[in-house]
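Anyone opening a protein record will find just a pair of labelled lines. A complete record is shown below as an example:
=====
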Amino acid sequence: MTKPMITRMVLFVFSMAVVGWLPLPLLSSVALADDDSLSNKLNLSLYGYVETSYTQNFNNPSTGVNNNRSFDGDANSFRPNMAQLVLEKAASPGGALSDRAGFRLKLNFGEDAKFTGGTGNDDFDFQEAYVQYMPADNVTLQAGRMNTLIGYEVIESPLNPNFSRSFLFGIGEPFTVTGFRASVDFSDSASLAVSAINSFKGLQRDENNGKSIEALLSLAPADNLGVSIFGFWGPEDTSFGEESADRMQVGGIIDVQATDQLELVLEGYYGNQEVPGATNARWNGVAGYAIYDFNDQWGLHVRAEVFEDAAGYFSCFGDESIGNAHVCPAWVSDAQGDGTFNQTLWETTWTLQYKPVPNLITRAEFRYDKSNRNTFADGDGVSDSQSTLAGEMIFLF
């Protein structure tokens, strides 16, 4: 842990204590009634989680990397994934006028923060930092850095059915966006959100003079059925040169609560990036989930997916310094430079989940990855597949 990170952590924890959340010894002798605390007066909430894991790669790669992975890229290694703190005042309709304004500040610490922030070597990231206002009961406005509207999986592991992330999420979707968002609830079963943002990559600064657009239409035609349609369009850096070009992505999610215990989810999307002077880059995929909870403690969550990187534009462009973000063996770089690299990835994931107490999640997961190219390290060589066994623990507070 770096000294700047420690300093930031100490300052943040101390500030939480000052407003009455954390029982530091300094404040133990001071009687503060709940009604008199600043947090209560401002209707503030503080919550989060701590996550750690271990992943065994049966290829035993000499590189120490689980190739084509996102948040579980360390092979045969323990990983302090995430310590997340969320400070929030949610905007709400009705009541006093001040209740319509709010904010969210989401802070990430740990190895995963290198990937969410994309800074390369800093294990600290402001995943979300935005202000919020509700001018009407069914309208919400947000400005700042926010989680994207695109996709089923998210950065926060407790909100996903599996420990490891899908190829669709880790390789082909944005994680966060920076800009302005307007959301409208037309009814209890239909809503629309539209964002004007800097970049598909979630950058806090814009790489060009144009803004991109993302949108999400959410429908609930029945009590046990949810349908989401999402899309993205805008000028984005091509990574093949300085010139920006149009990028688009469109997809959808179908979520069916088949029984009280079984949930079925299907996600698919198609993406296309113009590349000046070359063939367009194309990526697409589909993933299916079966989420079965035997009871409040035990659950079995299964995922199967296929992801196609038709031009070799999205996969294998990772960086070990930001959490082994879908890194591939060295030979791929030469093929990418020659424009001869592309791959199709498949995987199946079986996750057994157990909650010994409500605020502790434990998971054991087996995953098998397959590619039509040799993009997985295997000892000192390469292979077209890899198998991993992982254990994860998450404490919620």
Summary: Residues 58-80+131-396 form a domain with the Porin fold (CATH 2.40.160.10). Residues 9-34 have pLDDT under 50 and may be disordered. Helices lie at 3-18, 25-28, 38-42, 111-117, 167-172, 331-338.
